[in-house]
Amino acid sequence: MNQIQTAAGQRRVIVMIPGWGMNSSVWQQLAERLAINHHLIVLDLPGQGRSQVLEVFSLTAVAETLLNVILEPVFTLVGWSLGASVAIEMARLSPDRVHSLMLVAGTPKFVKTADWPGVPAQVFDEFAVQLAADLPQTMLRFLALQVYGSANARQALQQLKTALSATAFPRLDTLIGGLNILKYSDVRPVLRQLSCPVRAIYGANDQLIPVASASALRDINPAICVHIIDTAGHALFLSHQQEFYDWLLAGL
User: Fold this and answer.
1) Residues with a known catalytic role
2) How many domains does the chain have?
3) How far is the C-alpha of 212 from the C-alpha of 13, rounded, in Å?
Protein backbone atom coordinates (compact mmCIF):
# COMPACT_ATOMS: atom_id res chain seq x y z
CA MET A 1 0.00 0.00 0.00
CA ASN A 2 1.16 3.50 -0.73
CA GLN A 3 1.63 5.38 2.52
CA ILE A 4 2.68 9.01 2.77
CA GLN A 5 3.42 10.13 6.30
CA THR A 6 4.20 13.52 7.73
CA ALA A 7 4.49 14.33 11.39
CA ALA A 8 4.77 18.00 12.18
CA GLY A 9 2.60 18.62 15.24
CA GLN A 10 1.30 15.12 15.87
CA ARG A 11 -1.73 16.42 17.76
CA ARG A 12 -3.87 13.87 15.96
CA VAL A 13 -3.20 10.98 13.59
CA ILE A 14 -5.39 11.40 10.50
CA VAL A 15 -5.78 8.61 7.95
CA MET A 16 -7.17 9.71 4.58
CA ILE A 17 -8.78 7.29 2.10
CA PRO A 18 -9.73 8.31 -1.46
CA GLY A 19 -12.75 7.25 -3.46
CA TRP A 20 -13.43 4.80 -6.26
CA GLY A 21 -10.95 4.93 -9.14
CA MET A 22 -8.85 7.69 -7.57
CA ASN A 23 -5.44 7.66 -5.93
CA SER A 24 -4.08 9.36 -2.85
CA SER A 25 -2.80 12.36 -4.88
CA VAL A 26 -6.33 13.74 -4.77
CA TRP A 27 -5.71 14.71 -1.12
CA GLN A 28 -2.38 16.45 -1.78
CA GLN A 29 -3.31 20.09 -1.18
CA LEU A 30 -5.44 19.32 1.85
CA ALA A 31 -2.84 16.96 3.30
CA GLU A 32 -0.12 19.59 2.99
CA ARG A 33 -2.18 22.01 5.08
CA LEU A 34 -3.15 19.44 7.69
CA ALA A 35 0.41 18.13 8.00
CA ILE A 36 1.56 21.41 9.53
CA ASN A 37 0.00 20.42 12.86
CA HIS A 38 -1.07 16.80 12.48
CA HIS A 39 0.30 13.40 11.56
CA LEU A 40 -1.07 12.48 8.12
CA ILE A 41 -1.28 8.98 6.68
CA VAL A 42 -2.60 9.06 3.12
CA LEU A 43 -3.49 5.64 1.74
CA ASP A 44 -4.35 4.25 -1.67
CA LEU A 45 -7.14 1.72 -1.93
CA PRO A 46 -5.93 -1.71 -3.11
CA GLY A 47 -5.22 -1.71 -6.84
CA GLN A 48 -5.42 2.08 -7.06
CA GLY A 49 -2.51 4.47 -7.15
CA ARG A 50 0.67 2.60 -6.26
CA SER A 51 -0.94 -0.09 -4.13
CA GLN A 52 -1.03 -3.79 -4.87
CA VAL A 53 -4.10 -5.48 -6.31
CA LEU A 54 -6.28 -7.62 -4.06
CA GLU A 55 -7.28 -10.98 -5.48
CA VAL A 56 -10.46 -11.02 -3.38
CA PHE A 57 -11.95 -7.54 -3.58
CA SER A 58 -14.55 -7.17 -0.85
CA LEU A 59 -15.33 -4.37 1.59
CA THR A 60 -13.98 -6.37 4.53
CA ALA A 61 -10.83 -7.39 2.65
CA VAL A 62 -10.11 -3.79 1.68
CA ALA A 63 -10.69 -2.57 5.25
CA GLU A 64 -8.46 -5.27 6.72
CA THR A 65 -5.71 -4.48 4.22
CA LEU A 66 -5.68 -0.82 5.20
CA LEU A 67 -5.81 -1.56 8.93
CA ASN A 68 -2.80 -3.81 8.58
CA VAL A 69 -0.57 -1.06 7.17
CA ILE A 70 -1.46 1.57 9.78
CA LEU A 71 1.04 1.24 12.62
CA GLU A 72 -0.41 3.94 14.86
CA PRO A 73 -2.70 2.56 17.57
CA VAL A 74 -5.44 5.24 17.37
CA PHE A 75 -6.44 7.51 14.50
CA THR A 76 -9.19 9.56 12.88
CA LEU A 77 -10.47 8.25 9.54
CA VAL A 78 -11.36 10.58 6.67
CA GLY A 79 -12.98 8.69 3.80
CA TRP A 80 -14.34 10.03 0.52
CA SER A 81 -17.18 8.21 -1.27
CA LEU A 82 -16.11 4.54 -1.49
CA GLY A 83 -13.40 5.49 1.00
CA ALA A 84 -16.14 6.46 3.45
CA SER A 85 -17.65 2.97 3.20
CA VAL A 86 -14.22 1.47 3.80
CA ALA A 87 -13.72 3.75 6.81
CA ILE A 88 -17.03 2.62 8.33
CA GLU A 89 -16.00 -1.01 7.90
CA MET A 90 -12.60 -0.29 9.46
CA ALA A 91 -14.37 1.18 12.48
CA ARG A 92 -16.47 -1.96 12.76
CA LEU A 93 -13.42 -4.22 12.61
CA SER A 94 -11.26 -2.17 15.00
CA PRO A 95 -13.47 0.06 17.14
CA ASP A 96 -10.72 0.46 19.72
CA ARG A 97 -8.39 2.03 17.13
CA VAL A 98 -10.77 4.47 15.41
CA HIS A 99 -11.08 7.69 17.39
CA SER A 100 -13.60 9.28 15.01
CA LEU A 101 -15.02 9.08 11.49
CA MET A 102 -15.23 11.84 8.89
CA LEU A 103 -17.43 10.81 5.96
CA VAL A 104 -16.92 12.92 2.83
CA ALA A 105 -19.72 12.58 0.26
CA GLY A 106 -20.23 9.08 1.58
CA THR A 107 -23.24 6.93 2.27
CA PRO A 108 -23.71 3.60 4.03
CA LYS A 109 -25.74 2.37 1.05
CA PHE A 110 -25.27 3.57 -2.53
CA VAL A 111 -28.16 1.77 -4.22
CA LYS A 112 -31.64 3.24 -4.11
CA THR A 113 -34.31 1.13 -2.41
CA ALA A 114 -37.74 1.81 -0.97
CA ASP A 115 -36.20 2.76 2.36
CA TRP A 116 -33.06 4.56 1.19
CA PRO A 117 -32.17 7.38 -1.26
CA GLY A 118 -29.47 6.38 -3.71
CA VAL A 119 -28.58 5.50 -7.28
CA PRO A 120 -30.63 2.92 -9.24
CA ALA A 121 -28.81 -0.42 -9.33
CA GLN A 122 -28.78 -0.55 -13.14
CA VAL A 123 -26.56 2.55 -13.22
CA PHE A 124 -23.71 0.49 -11.80
CA ASP A 125 -24.25 -2.22 -14.42
CA GLU A 126 -24.27 0.30 -17.26
CA PHE A 127 -21.16 1.97 -15.91
CA ALA A 128 -19.33 -1.38 -15.79
CA VAL A 129 -20.17 -1.96 -19.46
CA GLN A 130 -18.85 1.50 -20.35
CA LEU A 131 -15.62 0.84 -18.46
CA ALA A 132 -15.04 -2.40 -20.34
CA ALA A 133 -15.64 -0.66 -23.67
CA ASP A 134 -13.43 2.40 -23.08
CA LEU A 135 -11.84 2.66 -19.64
CA PRO A 136 -9.89 5.94 -20.07
CA GLN A 137 -12.78 7.86 -21.61
CA THR A 138 -15.25 6.54 -19.04
CA MET A 139 -12.96 7.61 -16.21
CA LEU A 140 -12.73 11.12 -17.65
CA ARG A 141 -16.53 11.35 -17.88
CA PHE A 142 -16.71 10.18 -14.29
CA LEU A 143 -14.43 13.02 -13.22
CA ALA A 144 -16.71 15.55 -14.90
CA LEU A 145 -19.70 14.06 -13.09
CA GLN A 146 -17.98 14.59 -9.75
CA VAL A 147 -17.84 18.36 -10.21
CA TYR A 148 -21.16 18.81 -12.03
CA GLY A 149 -23.32 21.50 -10.45
CA SER A 150 -20.47 22.79 -8.31
CA ALA A 151 -19.00 26.22 -7.92
CA ASN A 152 -15.35 26.28 -8.98
CA ALA A 153 -16.08 23.22 -11.13
CA ARG A 154 -13.38 23.89 -13.73
CA GLN A 155 -10.63 24.24 -11.14
CA ALA A 156 -11.80 21.15 -9.25
CA LEU A 157 -11.98 19.12 -12.46
CA GLN A 158 -8.41 20.03 -13.35
CA GLN A 159 -7.26 18.92 -9.91
CA LEU A 160 -9.05 15.60 -10.35
CA LYS A 161 -7.43 15.09 -13.75
CA THR A 162 -4.01 15.91 -12.33
CA ALA A 163 -4.48 13.44 -9.49
CA LEU A 164 -5.76 10.70 -11.80
CA SER A 165 -2.78 11.12 -14.12
CA ALA A 166 -0.28 10.83 -11.26
CA THR A 167 -0.37 7.04 -11.61
CA ALA A 168 -1.60 4.49 -14.15
CA PHE A 169 -5.32 3.80 -14.36
CA PRO A 170 -6.46 0.99 -12.07
CA ARG A 171 -7.05 -2.37 -13.71
CA LEU A 172 -10.53 -3.09 -14.98
CA ASP A 173 -11.06 -5.93 -12.48
CA THR A 174 -10.14 -3.60 -9.62
CA LEU A 175 -12.60 -0.96 -10.82
CA ILE A 176 -15.35 -3.55 -11.23
CA GLY A 177 -14.57 -4.87 -7.76
CA GLY A 178 -15.02 -1.39 -6.37
CA LEU A 179 -18.29 -0.94 -8.24
CA ASN A 180 -19.55 -4.19 -6.75
CA ILE A 181 -18.77 -2.92 -3.27
CA LEU A 182 -20.73 0.24 -4.02
CA LYS A 183 -23.60 -1.77 -5.48
CA TYR A 184 -23.96 -4.45 -2.82
CA SER A 185 -22.67 -3.02 0.46
CA ASP A 186 -25.02 -1.84 3.19
CA VAL A 187 -23.27 -0.71 6.36
CA ARG A 188 -26.25 1.03 7.92
CA PRO A 189 -26.30 -1.47 10.81
CA VAL A 190 -22.69 -0.54 11.57
CA LEU A 191 -23.47 3.17 11.77
CA ARG A 192 -26.32 2.46 14.16
CA GLN A 193 -23.94 0.76 16.58
CA LEU A 194 -20.74 2.79 16.35
CA SER A 195 -19.80 4.56 19.56
CA CYS A 196 -17.11 6.84 18.09
CA PRO A 197 -17.99 10.36 16.90
CA VAL A 198 -19.17 10.46 13.28
CA ARG A 199 -19.34 13.56 11.10
CA ALA A 200 -20.53 13.70 7.49
CA ILE A 201 -20.37 16.37 4.81
CA TYR A 202 -22.33 16.53 1.54
CA GLY A 203 -22.67 18.70 -1.54
CA ALA A 204 -26.24 19.75 -2.25
CA ASN A 205 -25.66 19.28 -6.00
CA ASP A 206 -23.91 15.90 -5.77
CA GLN A 207 -24.86 13.77 -8.79
CA LEU A 208 -23.64 10.54 -7.18
CA ILE A 209 -24.90 10.82 -3.61
CA PRO A 210 -28.40 12.32 -3.26
CA VAL A 211 -28.41 15.05 -0.64
CA ALA A 212 -31.42 13.26 0.88
CA SER A 213 -28.83 10.87 2.28
CA ALA A 214 -28.00 13.53 4.85
CA SER A 215 -31.36 13.36 6.59
CA ALA A 216 -31.48 9.59 6.13
CA LEU A 217 -28.12 9.38 7.90
CA ARG A 218 -29.51 11.29 10.88
CA ASP A 219 -32.42 8.85 11.02
CA ILE A 220 -29.94 5.99 11.37
CA ASN A 221 -28.00 7.67 14.15
CA PRO A 222 -29.13 11.08 15.46
CA ALA A 223 -25.69 11.61 16.99
CA ILE A 224 -24.11 11.93 13.53
CA CYS A 225 -23.23 15.55 12.77
CA VAL A 226 -24.12 16.43 9.17
CA HIS A 227 -23.03 19.46 7.16
CA ILE A 228 -24.22 20.40 3.66
CA ILE A 229 -22.45 22.75 1.23
CA ASP A 230 -25.14 24.31 -0.95
CA THR A 231 -23.05 24.95 -4.06
CA ALA A 232 -20.93 21.78 -4.03
CA GLY A 233 -20.95 18.49 -5.88
CA HIS A 234 -19.23 15.18 -5.15
CA ALA A 235 -15.65 16.51 -5.07
CA LEU A 236 -16.52 19.14 -2.48
CA PHE A 237 -13.12 19.08 -0.76
CA LEU A 238 -11.59 20.38 -4.01
CA SER A 239 -14.25 22.87 -5.08
CA HIS A 240 -14.77 24.31 -1.58
CA GLN A 241 -11.37 23.85 -0.01
CA GLN A 242 -11.57 26.40 2.79
CA GLU A 243 -15.07 25.44 3.93
CA PHE A 244 -14.10 21.78 3.91
CA TYR A 245 -10.86 22.47 5.76
CA ASP A 246 -12.71 24.42 8.45
CA TRP A 247 -15.27 21.62 8.78
CA LEU A 248 -12.56 19.02 9.15
CA LEU A 249 -10.61 20.98 11.76
CA ALA A 250 -13.76 21.53 13.79
CA GLY A 251 -14.06 17.78 14.25
CA LEU A 252 -10.49 17.12 15.34
Assistant:
1) 81, 206, 234
2) 1
3) 31
